[in-house]
Specification:
- By secondary structure, the chain is an alpha/beta fold.
- The chain has 2 domains: about 1-130 and about 170-370, NAD(P)-binding Rossmann-like Domain (Rossmann fold, 3-Layer(aba) Sandwich), CATH 3.40.50; about 135-170, no CATH class.
- It has 10 helices and 16 strands.
- The longest helix is centred in the N-terminal third of the chain and has 21 residues, at about 90-110.
- The chain is globular.
- It starts with a strand and ends with a helix.
- The mean pLDDT is about 95.
- It binds nicotinamide-adenine-dinucleotide (NAD) and zinc ion (ZN).
- Zinc ion binds near residues 135, 137, 138, 162 and 165.
Length: about 375
């Protein structure tokens, strides 16, 4: 039996991964998670798989972390503070949890006696900033973030920095220059680079997975700081309009949590994954307005709840970013299995039973107070 440690394994993505690992029967699974209050207001979640050993601990505490890491063959490092907006005013906390936490893990791998032969880490699409675009005249362009001080917001689209033409979004591959636009993104970028570097230095296979926008059951419906699908869902369930920034036509790449789990399993199992970075998305852009409309329709609230399109710009937001998944398809044989429509249906079926406390107003007020909206 191989021993797998999943840090953050009580969370949304981690708990689904744990379920699959346990099912395989040839892994002995341990979860290390501090049960962060914002994510787990009621402690250990009811969905927690009791066939995985649970250890409550914090990645910021090297002593606690060392005990579990030196006893593992495989480590999947998912523990992190995950709110993009919140990271802009809880800077030290995000840096501590995500950069220092990973540094602790790497220090253990570099200095202690251990058997770890694979480390999979969760990176994020947020490290790209704007996605890749094409200009009719200038070819492929990686534009800077939009700056609306210079122009009238009649057109939300990204413009070519050279000829000022409107750009067309194209899939973003892994070698696109990175341009983090939040503290959260910076921490994910640092985490990825530090892990790959130490992996190469000590010959420990590291795989960095850049997850795009993950959705599915168990994403906290009460944590207003993460996951647009979950935030909208909890608003609509409570008969309140989902609040949309800009005109709603900005796009993201929404990927079903089960597909993310498959990418993690392939990374654990395939040697070809070693020392590589992979995008994990679907390759299909979906607009934020479409997410809101789909959820309203599926929840049977059409005509009762309408999206609130605010035409407001949230500082640091990107217009379009969706994955080029050529690399993960080719090297790991990965294929996303659940379409957006199917996934949204599955999400709704789960949400009918789940508790959703709408804390959106509180989160939105905080962003306003810090002048981030
Ligand atoms: N959900 C997404 O769309 C998405 C996209 C890109 C990347 N990611 C990454 O995937 C990973 C998992 O995210 P998620 O969506 O499941 O979030 P989540 O908040 O549901 O899970 C994170 C888990 O980590 C735990 N945790 C937080 N800080 C910790 C600490 N200091 N020590 C120990 N445990 C701690 C939390 O209690 C929680 O159970 C994160 O690294 C995140 O950055 C997620
Ligand atoms: Zn141009």
């Amino acid at each position: 039996m191989e021993k797998v440690l999943v840090t953050g394994g009580a969370g949304f993505i981690g708990s689904h991964l744990v379920d699959e690992l346990v099912k395989k029967r040839h892994y002995k699974v341990t979860v290390f998670d501090n049960l962060e209050q914002q994510v787990h207001p009621d402690g250990l979640p009811e969905y927690y798989n009791i066939r995985a050993k649970f250890i409550r601990g914090d990645v910021r505490n090297k002593r606690q972390l060392k005990e579990v890491v030196i006893d593992s063959d495989i480590v999947v490092h998912l523990a992190a503070a995950v709110g993009v907006g919140q990271s802009q005013y809880q800077i030290a906390k995000y840096v501590d949890s995500n950069i220092q936490g990973t540094a602790n893990l790497l220090d253990i791998l570099a200095n202690e006696k251990h058997n770890v032969k694979k480390l999979v880490i969760a990176s994020s699409m947020s490290i790209y900033g704007e996605g890749l675009y094409e200009c009719k005249k200038c070819g492929k362009v990686k534009p800077p973030l939009r700056n609306f001080k210079d122009r009238n917001i009649l057109n939300w689209e990204t413009l070519c920095p050279d000829c000022k033409d409107v750009l067309k979004p194209v899939p973003t591959p892994e070698d696109t220059p990175l341009m983090s636009n939040s503290i959260y993104a910076i921490t994910k970028k640092e985490q990825e680079e530090m892990s790959l570097l130490i992996g190469r230095t000590y010959g420990i296979p590291v795989v960095a997975l850049r997850f795009f926008n993950v959705y599915g059951p168990r994403q906290s419906l009460s944590n207003p700081y993460t996951g647009v699908a979950a935030i909208f869902l909890s608003r609509i369930k409570n008969n309140k309009p989902p609040v949309i920034y800009e005109d709603g036509l900005q796009t993201r790449d929404f990927i079903w949590v089960g597909d993310i789990v498959n990418a993690c399993l392939l990374s654990i199992e395939k040697e070809e994954a070693n020392h590589q970075v992979f995008n994990v998305g679907t390759g299909n852009p979906v607009s934020i307005l479409k997410v809101a409309e789909t959820l309203i329709e599926l929840l049977g609230k059409k005509g009762k709840v309408h999206p609130d399109v605010t035409y407001k710009f949230r500082k640091g937001d990107v217009r379009h970013c969706y994955a080029d998944i050529t690399r993960i398809k080719k090297i790991l044989g990965f294929k996303p299995e659940i379409s957006f429509e199917e996934g949204m249906k599955k999400l709704i079926n789960w949400a009918k039973r789940a508790k959703a406390v709408d804390k959106f107003e509180k989160a939105s007020q905080e962003l306003k107070k810090k002048k981030l909206v």
